[in-house]
Amino acid sequence: MSTLSFTHPTSWRCAACNQDLQPQKVAVTYLHSVFHVELMACSQCGFVLVPEDLAIGKMLEVEQLLEDK
Amino acid sequence: MDQQALRALEACCVQEEPPFCSAACPLRVDVRAFMAALTKGDTRSARRVLDRHMPFPAIVGRLCEAPCQAACKRIEVDSTLAIGLLERYCVAATEQVLKPPKMPAKGGRVAVAGGGLFGMTAALDLARKGREVHLFTPAKELGGTLEEKFRSHLPDDAFIQAASTLSGYGAHLHFQVRLDADALKAFAQDYEALCLDGNEIDMAGLPFAASTPDPVTLAVNDVGCFGGGAPNGPDFQVIRQVADGRRAALSVERFLQKVSLTAEREREGSISTRLFTSIEQVQPQAAILPASGAEYNSTEARAEASRCIQCECLECVKQCAFLQEFKEYPKTLVRRVYNNLSIVQGTRSANTMINSCSLCSQCTIICPHDFPMAALCRDARERMVQTEHMPPSAHDFALEEMRFTLGDACSLARHQPGMDASRYLFFPGCQLAGSAPEQVSATYQFLMDQLQGGVGLLLSCCGIPAQWAGDEALFQETLASLQATLDAFGKPELICACTSCLALVRKHLPAYASTSLWEILAALEHLPPECRTPTQPLALHDPCGARDNAGLRASVRQLCGRLGVQLHDTTMPEELADCCGYGGLMQFANQPLGRKAATVKAGRSEYPALAYCAMCRDNVAGAGKASAHLLEYLFPGKAGDDPLERANPGFSLRHENRSRLKEQLMHSLWQETAGDAPAHSALRLIIAPDLTSLLESRHILHEDVQKVIFHAEQGGNYLLNPENGHRLAKYKPVRVTYWVEYEATDNGFIVHNSYSHRMVLPEALP
Ligand code: SF4
Ligand code: SF4
Ligand SMILES: [Zn+2]
Fold first, then answer.
1. Rounded CA separation B726/A66 (Å)
2. A1 pLDDT exceeds 50?
3. Which of B139, B295, B639, B642 fits a 20 to 30 Å CA distance from B166?
């Protein structure tokens, strides 16, 4: 299964680990469905960034699709 | 919902019933569509309408006695449409546009004896059905014995054209055949079915056993012989000949298919219609008469056709933002709901629709047949919850708010200070406590001063959001706890400030005494001493929750009168009132539609709004209309501000007000302190006004923002943007993950942005 990537250069850094964010494969879930996506995350502690445009865009779209299934 | 329930609901809505004209037309010509086309000057489309249902339009269109005309609704306004004349105009101005198809030949030899309009129509309909038809007439031409007074209206070649139409469909025409006893006997023997045209045949002297035609089937015996039409004379009507011909053809079809001749034939011929059409908005407009004295010219025809009302019902749709939004009327909507509930696999495309109805029952009041839309949508929601198909995002926010109101932070039940019994229990309801806490305190004080026997206080929620959301379990649980409180207080009379609470309690806890705050106040001798008369005229916006409570609405009007309000009604007053968008949780499941509903309600009067429901007050204010709650005049705030200028407090402020109200009342009346506030609530937020409205529309409470920042700062888990020093943190209190971008300053946390999602990130998994 191919992994959708939502990575992009970002100025956000992990404050706790003092690390830049790196593309990372993560599994996000909603209503019994699992999606493998690539997001920016802290390579040390794994803090995953969901930027605003993703949250109110593609993510919302998928959430609504799943809710109507 | 089963098929039967679906049918019953569908039948309740009359929008698809035929208009009055078409119902009266035995051919069921779509006169309404015909008029619409003519009004546009589209004569060809008008002709297409005739071609579809009318046999031989060039003849029937000119000669029909137009029984439809007497049925035309317009008579109730001024005078009927000149349907007959307009049809004549149309067939004269056009050639045939639509040629109804011929079905594949399927055997079945039928003789038609007689070439009058009855025989012609029967032959045409049967030929189109693919039957082998032989028409016999003693004449040299079709038309039977049609008299000159009719023929003079027809073009010379009308019957020659008709013959070629019939031949075109494969009918065999036999002219100059003697239709004597031997011939008829032979037809009866040689053909599988026989149609007898009474215009050329003496139906009383048939050479075989026969009775008069059965009025429903036109059968004269049970071996396939049918008769209709009439000889010239007072009984002769062109439309009767044609209608009988059609009826006979249908009987022959059934006879040949060996199915019941009689079943379900009630809707043939002229019928009555259940359609409702309002003529309230129809302006009188004089009938157009042809200047020539005989026929219309095109300008006249267009003008006359434009008088057509285009009869339909849609009474509910005219008022309801929800029905307008989904471009449905209840009859079509109920099928979509049914289909949505029946889906096993696949997209439930009607979820949002089902969750968008405000359940306010305005349509039911308006509908001539009381269509039960609210029950339909609410039951569908309950079903969706039961089957785990309710989209969580639809009602989560509202239900979380309800849980918060029911929880320790906001709920309170106490006897009047210094007493240990309550004759009354004041129940302001969750939204009033959120919107106007100061008025709740003042009202409670006034009630304690005025009423004997003790007035307890109940800060809580009646559970209606759960009921609206279809969450029956949560609703029953809430109701049970309300009931337990009432029992524990010795069954006091519940005084509801909210009309929806009252309606719910009366319906679901009928054994308990309940009344409205408004009736209590109206019955008191004096108004509150501090009350203030509004300085400008106001329009009273009844809430949808008071729809079934005329006494309550009268009490409010009485109070307004005593207060000296220059009161106006809206255009949808009393039991017709619109919902403000809160009802049925519409504004949560469908935010844009909720706004539209509030705007519609606000627009029902030019005057500033006076409401007696907290949500109406706030939503109408949110729609940009100056709006006050009646309690704000009865118990003006200490600051003396103009209540009409108060903005919609929004979810966040209502949320905070509810817990603050409990804290204050516990302190001031019972000298108790509320439990410790959660640590995050101490965080000071600095939020710009336009961000506040963004948070409102994203359903993010200030408290959610506080929680995010509190957790981030505690654990040091956040992202940092070195360029501007902003922090970005997330937190998932229950199901939603909230993100906040903020800046830590000495004065508090400046909030720059906030958003949320429901998808669950890996580190948040259990
Ligand atoms: S008011 Fe609405 S529900 Fe009632 S018959 Fe008319 S279109 Fe149908
Ligand atoms: S107003 Fe128009 S649609 Fe209504 S009954 Fe008359 S012709 Fe028919
Ligand atoms: Zn880290």
1. 33
2. no
3. B295
DSSP type of residue B492:
P
Assign B763 a pLDDT band (cuts: 50, 70, 90). low
Please tell me the class of the B18-97+276-305 domain.
mainly alpha
Q: List the strands of the sheet with B567-569, edge to edge.
A: B567-569, B538-541, B609-611, B627-629
Cα gap B598→B601, rounded to integer Å = 5
Q: Which of B694, B757, B765 would you mutate first to test chain A, the one with the most A CBs within 10 A?
A: B757
Instruction: Name the band, by pLDDT with cuts 50, 70 and 90, for residue B637.
Output: confident
The residue-averaged pLDDT of B378-394 equals: 95
Q: Do B116 and B197 meet the contact criterion of CB atoms below 8 Å apart?
A: yes
Ligand 3 mean position, distance from CA A42 (Å) = 5
CATH for B109-257, among 3.50.50.60, 3.30.365.10, 3.30.420.110, 3.40.50.620?
Answer: 3.50.50.60
Nearest to A29 among B391, B720, B760 (CB): B760
Quote the ligand 2 centre to B69 CA distance (angstroms). 8
- Two tokens at B534? 């509004």
A4-67, CATH topology level:
Ubiquitin-like (UB roll) (3.10.20)
Start-to-end CA span in chain A (Å) = 21
In what order do the strands lie in the sheet containing B172-174? B172-174, B132-136, B109-113, B193-197, B225-228
Contacts of A50 in chain B (CB under 8 A): 730, 737, 739, 757, 761
- The pLDDT-based confidence of B638 (bands split at 50, 70, 90) is confident
Architecture in CATH for domain B679-757: 2-Layer Sandwich (3.30)
Q: What is the pLDDT of residue B639?
A: 76
Neighbours of B624 (CB within 10 A): 11
Could you tell me if A9 lies within 8 Å of chain B, comparing CB atoms?
no
Q: Give pLDDT, residue A52.
A: 97
Global model pTM greater than 0.80: yes
Where is average pLDDT lowest: A32-41, B57-66, B157-166, B756-765? B756-765
Q: State residue B180's pLDDT score.
A: 94
Distance, CA of B402 to CA of B41 (rounded, Å): 58
Q: Is B730's CB within 8 Å of A64's CB?
A: no
Question: Which residues in B371-460 belong to E strands, given as ranges?
Answer: 412-414, 424-427, 455-459
Residues B475, B481, B484: CA angle, nearest 5 degrees: 140
Residue-wise pLDDT for A9-62, tens only, equals 999 999 999 999 999 999 999 998 999 999 999 999 999 999 999 999 999 999
Q: Which residues pair with B104 in a beta bridge?
A: none
* A47–B760 CB contact, under 8 Å: no
Does ligand 1 come within 6 angstroms of the Cβ of B314?
yes
Across the range B609-627, mean pLDDT stands at: 97
Largest CA distance in chain B: 116
For ligand 2, whether the C-beta of B35 sits within 6 Å is: yes
Q: Is B53 exposed, middle or buried (0-12, 13-18, 19+ CB in 10 A)?
A: middle
Judged against a pLDDT cut of 90, whether residue B346 lies above it is answered with no
Domain ranges (residues) in chain B: 18-97+276-305, 109-257, 315-391, 392-675, 679-757
Taking the CB of residue B275, how many other CB atoms lie within 10 A of it? 19
Q: What is the pLDDT of residues B455-483, one digit of tens each?
A: 999 999 999 999 999 999 999 999 999 99
- Show me where the domains of chain A are located: 4-67
E strands, B678-726, in order: 685-687, 719-720
* Structure confidence at residue B289 as a pLDDT band (50, 70, 90): very high
CB-nearest partner of A12 from B351, B721, B761: B721
Average pLDDT score over chain B: 95
Q: Is B751 helix (H, G, I), strand (E, B) or coil?
A: strand
